[in-house]
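Hi R.,

Here's the chain you asked about this morning:
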Amino acid sequence: MPPAAAPNEVAGVGIGWRHPHYGEVLEALPALAFLEVHSENFFGAGGAALAVLEQGRAHYPVSLHGVGLGLGSVAGIDPWHLDRLAALVQRIEPLLVSEHACFARAPLAGPSAVVHAADLLPIPFSSEALAVLCRNVQQVQERLRRPLLVENLSSYIPCPGQEMDEAQFLSELARRSGCRLLLDVNNLYVNARNAALRGEGVEPLAAVRRTIDALDPAHVGEIHLAGHAEVAEAGVRMVIDDHGSRVCEEVWALYAHARARLGPVPTLIEWDTGVPALSVLLDEAARAAALPIPAPETACA
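And the predicted structure, written out as tokens:
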């Protein structure tokens, strides 16, 4: 089993490793920097899924990407969920462990009855929400004994109670908790496009570049790239982060900007809806890997 590397020691490009490609990846062993899987799919103590993951881990560094902790939940972290994640981390020795800046758990009828929304729900960029997020991130990091990467979210309606912009919120999260940021460039673009469609006077490309430029490169430990879809219903247009198509040209341009600003950062191609042939994912990964890596002295220019 290759040893787990510190973030950014592996600065290449990986793909989301989903069920349709389990066998093909293990047979072909394409040249990839790492594989990413959803942590919750491997919480069982044994079985076929975990056996496949261990076979993949024998050939590649693995990134564990969670979707269920609900780090921004006032109700706190589910102890069972955290225990299962800790056991998986100990077993797989992943390159990266990541989750989302969202909430998912809330009291239903008192503190003893907490429900899980089974979704990634947005949190306001407020001091109160930041304190909750930092508390929960620190709890997870202490349990896992390693830094966590926290991903910025896509959202579709304005969240009330905003006290700071997204870059300020994420930067303060990293500074206070010691976590690193998983920068989803497509999510930034989706949010900016939706703000523009709502008539908020936003120029999406410029808005995303400003967010990227406001981040400390030392805080960013991974980048996600994915496709999105524009939908229209009842006269309302909206951009949905569905991970169901190739990365669009605008996001590729923003990724090039991020690489120039942030330097070499592990990058993942995500595709979760209508997963295509493996060759399509490898083609996207090759395009990301072909972007020149800026020299260290110009990375922060």
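The longest strand covers residues 114-121.

Let me know if you need anything else.
M.
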